[in-house]
Amino acid sequence: MELENDQVRVTTRRAGDSVLHEVATRDGNVVAESLDGPWTTERIEGRNLILEGETPVGPARLTIVVPATGSWVHFRVDAEISGRLDELLALYQFVPGTADFTFAPHIRPADDHVVAQWGMKTPAAIIQKDRATMALVLDTELVTEQSRRLHLALEMEADPLVRPQPLLGIGIKVTEPVELNYFRHREDLAVDIRGERVSFGYYIWVGDEEPAVGYRSVARFLWQLFGQKRITRTLAPQAARFDRYADEGLTYAFDNLWLDLDQPGGPAGGVLNGICYANDIWFQSLFNHLRSAIGMRGFGHPDAASRVKNLALSAPQHPAGPFKTIFHSSIRQARREKDWVTSSHWMLSPGVENKMRSVRRQNLVKLIDWESLYHTVDCSWTTYWMLRWHQEVEADERLTAFASNYGDFLVDAQTRSGAIPSFIRADDLTPEVLLSHNVGTSASAAMLARLYMVTGQKAHLVAARRAARFIEENVLPTRRWQDYEVVFDSGAKPLGFFDHHTQQYAQTTQGMVWTIAMFHSLYEATGEQRFLDRAGEVVDYLSLFQQLWDPPFLSVQTFGGFPVGNSHPSWNDARTPLLATAFADHFALTHEPEYLQRAIAALRASLVLMFVPENAAVSAIFEAGPRGHADEGYAGRGRDEQFTGLSFDFPVGAALSSIALVKQRHGDAYVDATRNFAIGIDGCLVHDLKVQNDRVDLSVELTPSTEQEIDLRVVIDNPRDAQTLLTVNGNEVGVFSRAQLSTGVHVPVKGCPQ
Asked: Which residues contact 514 (CB under 8 A, 6 or more apart)?
């Protein structure tokens, strides 16, 4: 039997008593073929192909739906179970053979490991050989509370020594967490079921794509499937306007954690964290207080922001350029003492060590004398944000001078390969061998390219180009997104750690952000399209990590957030707003709506773990910590439970700075008149947009619902006429010039749209 549309075809065939099926592109190239299953009968009903049979624990039905158009097929398995169930899977082999590209949302390095539901942030697996591409995608709308007992899983076996034709599977497989970050299946985990219906669904997407980048089309499909309707229908998991979160977060920080300092460079200060030292403030790649200060300024505290900036500029800088990145203060003999440390790592925190045995037993973090090393990634990312502050927030020549001195050092430190070592010995400024050639180079290259934009010194641009070439040749082809976090985080994996089953390196998303920033900065510095194209490849790969659903087995909402990477189970990681900035920056350069939509989704998820009453509807832990503080992730060990929080900067400061930057550029509601695209950004949804030559009409809903009148800043890019009439909810706001619209028009809005 056969069903098809203009892009895909499903065909059944008999193998003994079994009915198998295969999915092919419209031109007949078979991409996916089912393996032995329980199906023994088949029939067609309309556009549905129905297979039925008996499993060892009861009867089952597979309903296959081929849409009228589209390169995907939908499958639904329904079974009546009576017995002990440990797995019920739909298994396929990738017919084209050994893969050139694979993606699974979580790695499974041991034979008994499983890509369990806790690791399925993006619930999809992708495989490609030459142009033939396949994605296996969980239908999240069919996932219920039942998944708390009957766990879902993705299967991938892509090791060519094990299977010349890779295996992909999806369905029910009961698992347990193991070794901090992984999950395994055992038959004795089976669940006793008596007369219960069990269901799950999935999509198979197939395509004829450009080699090695077919994932980009899958990213589009996933967003169309899960994201586009959601982002325009609800603000959740954002439960209040961003200024409410800012009020709560900054009140907690200023009232409880703030330290004022007087020093020669001007009044300084900051929010104390106590990560590794009693009262410390970090200017590091994740916990970056300078970046947080952009949020302070954006939400009405310019004096505090200025004090943080002055503190960053007071960091002791070696005459050659590198500088210390961690400030700490203590009281000794009734005197306050201030000191700076070259670098450190959060895994050295006594609190973290007490919680995680892996730090005591196996983590390499304790083998490094951090205080004797400059960490170029931290220095580069801090000076990168100094330069963005100078360009986008407030011009300050002190920032460029500080960054320029450090940039000259990076030029000298660059290796012949173009890589920039991550660690430099403080005593003689020679490079440490560990992590001397890795994706951390991107952070330094991003800073150098942006520095060239400010200073015009060619040496900085030449070094940035060489670094980009190193990344293009050594990171992008194999997706080796491995930085210091892979080596030193709680998972403690050796550099080069590779999962042969999924054919993936252990990856973190942080290096992708640095690389996107590098390519964006090079594009802005040179105007060369190839750099923007490269940025797009990395942005789309990063898209594969975005959480596109709210799993019913978790007690917090997660849509829009991001994880650490592919080897850490936590959801809603505090880096989410940092990644949002990468998407927003890419939208600013490409004007492709999906990237701003993904950025807004990430921002809406960035403070779901804040301890505030408004979050009661989206988080079961809304009262589990000091009001205004926030955790840095959830379900960090593969269980539905609270994880941990170390720092104001991660996530609260990071979130407020990312929100401030997006709102500065795009307002509370944004319209691109040329593309007929509109989106609500803060506290509102845009339901209707009508663009005429000299007129733009918007229908805007405030949410959460309020009787209070709210002043919304509406930004409109690319209006068709020099003068445009703007109406909101049927009310004429006025006639505005292009310049006024691109700057933003303040519109009072109350209640629901007319």
From this structure: 285, 377, 381, 439, 440, 442, 443, 446
